[in-house]
Amino acid sequence: GGPTAPWSWSPGALRPSTALHTAAVSCGEGVEAGAGGPEASTPLVGADAKPLGKTDELKAVGLVLGTAIGAGFLALPYTTAPVGALPASAVMLCSWGFLLAQSLIVADIIVFASKRAGAPVSYATIARDTLGLRGACLVSALFLCLMMITLVAQFAKAGSLLAPILGVPYAVGCALAALVMGLFTERAPASVTGTINTAFTGGFMVMVLALFGVGLPLADWTRLIRTDWSLSMALVPSMLQLLVYVEIVPTVCTLLNNELPRIRRVILIGAGVLLTMFVAWSVLGIAIVPFIPAALGAVRTDPIEILLSTGGVMTNVIAGLATCAIITTILGANIAMRTFFMDLFRKRTKQETSAASPPASDAEAAAPSPESESDAQLIAPPAPDRTAQRKSVLAFVACTVLPLAFACKSPTAFFSAIHLAGAYPVTLLWGWVPPLMAIRLGVHETPSPGQGASKPRT
């Protein structure tokens, strides 16, 4: 789940992202250039930005949780059952720590580059500036791959849940979920989509509490004794995909006016709640459903399917949990991909195509020209051109048709997609790229006396 991930493509360096700018303007927030490093807490667009409070931080925490929460949460007992509760918890803790470190690096990168450019900057645009054209192509390709694999998993799980309820084939269930959510995302205003997403994220949290309330009396805690550490490493890719939330960090930076202390606090709180919830559900799932090793001739069964077949309150809770999780994830992925494609093919303005390169001197950085200040405050997304309809069709195909084609092949696509996403796109996009970008930008370099933010390395 979660709102638009601010991905954009630009032939120029450090160009403000349309998605980010729109979010900043709609929230009354903005960016202004600052000579200080990323620790500075200067708002980025306009000096009249509303002061932030605890409510804003709470909303940002919700974004972090809503992004990580999805149908993958339902896959947790199936994924962790073979290794046991203790090894699974250890792998989750290590994966969580890795993603937390990467998310803090991404926050540093976004804040540093946005303050240097004087306007919100997208992750893909920073990749273009720091890693070159090929690097930007790789980052964008990894992002699209990750989003499409995520949608494959969600459509597959939705199809497996809808098919028995509606009495239709599995492929029809996948198609219904994909088309309904795809058309809704395309037609509904952004404000409506965001409200729906927030509501279902809240519903998910309520269902999680209900799940624990119903599941605790059914647990057999002696099942937690079983462990198999030899399978722990095979669990890592799936854990990375299930726990990932780094794609929402640029949006959090914008919503919190690039105030790095607030951003770090929000990430830590959101990630902490996420880890607690996932470890607790993994332990409870293992305690509720008995695990029969495949070596004994048993066919490995999804614990969620077993719980759904029991009937009663547990079935209703699992169904509600699955509905909220799938809807939030599909909405977030659809919006992120549509924003990517709309920004990829839209026409560039003269101001956008000019490089927002670092200032030649500290004096120039301290005294930006009136024209640049005026332009930075008045940037607005360009009006749709004549090819808008074709762009919309392309986005619909990428967000709905292609993932649906893969999801319809088999219900097992759900677990396969989760493992594949963690093994490649997540590891590369959020494991290798952020540190390289931070090094190239010189984010953590200490400026010499009398100087402002350090300039990027070449």
Can you describe what's shown?
Residues 352-379 are annotated as: Disordered. It is found in: Cell inner membrane. Keywords: Cell inner membrane, Cell membrane, Membrane, Transmembrane, Transmembrane helix, Transport. The chain crosses the membrane at residues 60-78, 90-114, 135-155, 161-184, 196-219, 239-256, 268-293, 313-337, 392-407. The protein is mainly alpha-helical and 458 residues long. It has a single domain (18-140, 155-292, 299-347, 386-441), classed as Amino acid/polyamine transporter I. The protein contains 17 helices and no strands. The chain has helices at residues 18-26, 54-68, 76-80, 85-117, 123-166, 170-187, 190-215, 232-243, 249-255, 260-288, 303-309, 312-345, 350-353, 362-366, 370-378, 388-407, 413-441. Helix 4 packs across helix 8, helix 4 packs across helix 17 (413-441) and helix 5 (123-166) packs across helix 16 (388-407). It is globular, with a radius of gyration of 23 Å. The relative contact order is 0.22. The model is unreliable at 1-48, 347-383 and 450-458 (pLDDT under 50).
Give descriptors for this structure:
mainly alpha, disordered C terminus, single chain, 458 residues, Amino acid/polyamine transporter I, 17 helices
